[in-house]
């Protein structure tokens, strides 16, 4: 009877959360008691540093200054635990009243044994495989005793059943006497234990998967940070290279530019760090609560322990409902950092390193929807946008719409002669010359009709020769500004140009995903192809070639600088989002003041 009482007392000294003997027990406002370390874990799991929710009754307790150590201690429990730990265990096998002190405990027999009983126990063949613990190790806390589940009302009976309604273990006598008429459902205790362990394993597995999901998200953020860091490094390298080629007096300018790069990228890295921190907090949350509820060394025995574990399991189930990470925000943040680049100043008459470009654009709606067909810089440094619905819209470098001319002409192409006369190509493939004051000149050109030549494109070279390309005819006609028939013809070898641009002694032709640099006889000198993307070219103010790569389905553009041999120099704009454009038609130009103009069918983007 004494041993049974000790087992009952020992069971009462177990923390409902960790199922071990209380360590530094603390009392909540609802009077339930837990280990200090268990309460600290629960405080972290609840996501509220100020309030603790009791796992047994769910009552809330205010935590002073977020410190569990300041909660009241259970002095009576601490004293009782110390007394239990200091009390000698006597042999439970001897029948005499003056029983000797135990030296070992048999886990399988559930008995404390003195030296003679231990020796006798060891001689029996059936007892050889029993697990025997030394009392010294039990007292020191190195090992714990596996207690047998005995009914508190009938101490000689094992609790072999589990009531699913009451959430408690019971012996067979309790089942017959107390629960039969209440319609409660019973299962074998061993079956419940097996099911409980499996349920905990399933929860742990789901928590591991959720943790793995967020770990992949953290890894993705690290990759994005690396991309942004690489951009910063590339910009810094470019700046240093330009600095080394310039005069020593530019040291101060170099440091300013590097500071701008860091200022633009470190803010993005901070955003990504905050996202990473949030994801890691989720990982820590699931790890902590999963470890608390999946303690497999013991199965909760009494109602408080079961209630605590039920609550914690429910908390974990609620936590697992957390949505998987959304990569959109981190992609958008990293895109801001990856759009940073260094634009070097290569003009010989100005000593300067250059400037930082961060793909910031003005987004301007054209006056007429779905109308743009051509774009060219004006002699006075503005931008002229030709519309097939009629007219040429003029925009300043800061995006101001300043005027509309030639409203009665349906424009396919626009150009300027060296004396500032307009060259207009209309939708019937007719070329017309106008004075700078928009007066029509009586000059006739013998061009191919739309049915003969197909969709046209126009450009004017430095010698005032006018070039008109034809898609269907697959050739270019070259005209003198005096008018009349074409003075010569340039054939295409098996491809159809969409747009043509004059470039020194060459022409740049565009055929959807291919840019070709050809001489004035039509021989292809250099070629650049990007499969699946639309390429549009323009000549930069530094006489290099600008190429816009359009990802039409994703509504993204990249603008890069190339040499006269179509070798890549640097990125200027990276994955800039544009409006959805059903009509796949784009043009690219650069203002004399350096701004880059990119036009879709009804919007103009000006990148500063």
Automatic annotation (TrEMBL):
Report the SUPFAM superfamilies cross-referenced here.
Answer: 3-carboxy-cis,cis-mucoante lactonizing enzyme, B-box zinc-binding domain, RING/U-box
Q: Which GO terms describe its cellular component?
A: nucleoplasm
| Domain RING-type stretches | 15-58
What Pfam families has UniProt attached to this entry? zf-RING_UBOX
> Is Transport one of the keywords?
no
Q: Region annotation Disordered: residue ranges? A: 322-341
Q: Taking every annotated instance into account, which residue ranges of this chain make up the domain B box-type? A: 86-135, 146-189
* Superkingdom: Eukaryota
Q: Which UniProt keywords apply?
A: Metal-binding, Phosphoprotein, Zinc, Zinc-finger
Q: What Gene Ontology terms describe what this protein does at the molecular function level?
A: ubiquitin protein ligase activity; zinc ion binding
Which protein is depicted? Uncharacterized protein
Originating organism: Strongylocentrotus purpuratus (Purple sea urchin)
């Amino acid at each position: 009877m004494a041993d049974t009482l000790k087992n009952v007392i020992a069971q009462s000294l177990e923390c409902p959360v960790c199922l071990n003997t209380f360590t530094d027990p603390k009392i909540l406002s609802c009077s339930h008691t837990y280990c200090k370390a268990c309460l600290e874990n629960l405080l972290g799991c609840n996501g509220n540093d100020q309030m603790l929710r009791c796992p047994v009754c769910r009552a809330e307790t205010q935590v002073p200054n977020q410190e569990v150590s300041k909660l009241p201690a259970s002095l009576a429990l601490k004293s009782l635990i110390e007394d239990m730990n200091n009390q000698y265990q006597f042999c439970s096998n001897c029948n005499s009243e003056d029983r000797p002190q135990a030296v070992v405990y048999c886990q399988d027999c559930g008995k404390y044994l003195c030296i003679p009983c231990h020796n006798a126990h060891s001689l029996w063949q059936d007892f050889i495989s029993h697990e025997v613990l030394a009392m010294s190790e039990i007292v020191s806390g190195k090992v714990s005793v596996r207690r047998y589940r005995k009914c508190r009302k009938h101490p000689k009976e094992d609790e072999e059943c589990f009531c699913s309604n009451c959430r408690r273990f019971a012996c067979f006598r309790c089942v017959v006497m107390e629960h039969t008429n209440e319609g409660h459902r019973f299962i074998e205790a061993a079956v419940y234990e097996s099911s409980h362990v499996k349920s905990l394993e399933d929860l742990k597995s789901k928590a591991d998967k959720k943790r793995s999901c967020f770990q992949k998200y953290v890894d993705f953020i690290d990759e994005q940070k690396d991309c942004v860091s690489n951009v910063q490094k590339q910009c810094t390298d470019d700046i240093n290279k330009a600095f080394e080629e310039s005069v020593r007096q530019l040291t101060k300018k170099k440091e300013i530019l590097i500071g701008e790069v860091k200022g633009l990228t470190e803010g993005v890295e901070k955003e990504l760090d905050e996202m990473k921190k949030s994801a890691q907090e989720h990982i820590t949350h699931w790890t902590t609560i999963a470890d608390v509820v999946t303690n497999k060394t013991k199965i909760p025995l009494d109602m408080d322990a079961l209630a605590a574990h039920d609550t914690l399991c429910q908390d974990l189930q609620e936590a697992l409902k957390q949505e998987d990470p959304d990569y959109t925000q981190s992609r958008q943040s990293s895109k801001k950092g990856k759009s940073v680049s260094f634009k070097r100043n290569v003009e010989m008459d100005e000593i300067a390193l250059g400037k930082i470009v961060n793909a910031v654009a003005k987004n301007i709606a054209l006056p007429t929807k779905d109308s743009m067909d051509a774009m060219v810089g004006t002699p006075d440094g503005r931008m002229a946008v030709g519309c097939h619905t009629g007219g040429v819209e003029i925009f300043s470098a800061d995006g101001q719409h300043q005027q509309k001319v030639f409203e009665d002409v349906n424009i396919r192409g626009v150009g300027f002669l060296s004396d500032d006369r307009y060259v207009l190509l209309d939708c019937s493939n007719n070329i017309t010359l106008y004075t700078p004051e928009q007066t029509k000149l009586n000059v006739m050109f013998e061009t191919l009709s739309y049915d003969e030549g197909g969709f046209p494109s126009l450009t004017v070279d430095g010698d005032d020769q006018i070039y008109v390309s034809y898609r269907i005819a697959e050739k270019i006609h070259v005209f003198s500004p005096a008018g009349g028939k074409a003075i010569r013809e340039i054939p295409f070898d098996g491809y159809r140009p969409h747009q043509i641009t004059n470039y020194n002694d060459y022409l740049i032709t565009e055929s959807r995903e291919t840019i070709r640099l050809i001489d004035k006889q039509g021989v292809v000198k250099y070629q650049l192809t990007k499969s699946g993307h639309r390429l549009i070219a323009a000549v930069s103010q530094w006489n290099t070639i600008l190429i816009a790569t359009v990802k039409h389905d994703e509504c993204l553009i990249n603008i890069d600088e190339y040499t006269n041999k179509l070798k890549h120099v640097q990125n200027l704009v990276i994955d800039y989002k544009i409006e959805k454009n059903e009509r796949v038609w784009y043009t690219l130009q650069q203002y004399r003041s350096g701004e880059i103009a990119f036009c879709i069918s009804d919007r103009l983007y000006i990148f500063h």
